[in-house]
Amino acid sequence: MDCPFCQIQQDKTTILNNGNHVRVILSNPRLMKGHLLITPKRHVEKLSELNQEEITELINKTIEFQEKILNTFAKGCDIRQNYRPFQKQNNLKVNHLHIHLQPRELEDELYKKCQITEGKIFTVLTEDEKREIFALFS
Ligand SMILES: [Zn+2]
Questions:
Q1: In the chain, what percentage of residues exceed pLDDT 70?
Q2: pTM for the whole structure
Q3: 104 DSSP β-pair partners
Q4: How far is the CA of 86 from the centre of ligand 1 (A)?
Q5: Which of the four pLDDT bands, split at 50, 70 and 90, describes residue 1?
Q6: 95 CA → ligand 1 middle, Å
Q7: pLDDT digits over 3-17, tens only?
Q8: For FRET with 135, which of 43, 48, 70, 116 sits at 20 to 30 Å CA-CA?
Q9: What separation in Å is there between the alpha carbon of 20 and the centre of ligand 1?
Q10: Ligand 1 centre distance from Cα of residue 10 (Å)
């Protein structure tokens, strides 16, 4: 399977930081200026597949680069990791685990075009749902 994070294409990929187990790259395409991806060098698809050294480096790089974003040009920064095996890989969806760092500002383009309606989805937690989820996860 073609994996753009295993076979790095030099012309499309800008590596900002090359660690022992993890690299930091510019997301391409990106959602906003400074959208970064932190990705393990080994091909894994879920966080649970990482070993302890990879977890430590992944989290440390995430913290380090979030601080770089906050100290240089953005007031906020989202950290996201998606696991969606039901979606096929394409130029916007790569199966190889990666953490998104997304610089954010008040009412930025992502908010105005996508997240402005997110508030309508939030629902007050019911007692039944609380009991159901508690029973599953505790
Ligand atoms: Zn890969």
A1: 99
A2: 0.93
A3: 76
A4: 17
A5: low
A6: 7
A7: 999 999 888 899 999
A8: 48
A9: 16
A10: 15
* Separation of CA 137 and ligand 1 centre (Å): 30
Q: What is the pLDDT of residues 71-128, one digit of tens each?
A: 999 999 999 999 999 999 988 899 999 999 999 999 999 999 999 999 899 999 999 9
Taking the centre of ligand 1 as the mean of its atom positions, its distance from the CA of residue 121, in whole angstroms, is 33
* pLDDT confidence of residue 9: 87
CA of 33 to the centre of ligand 1 (A): 24
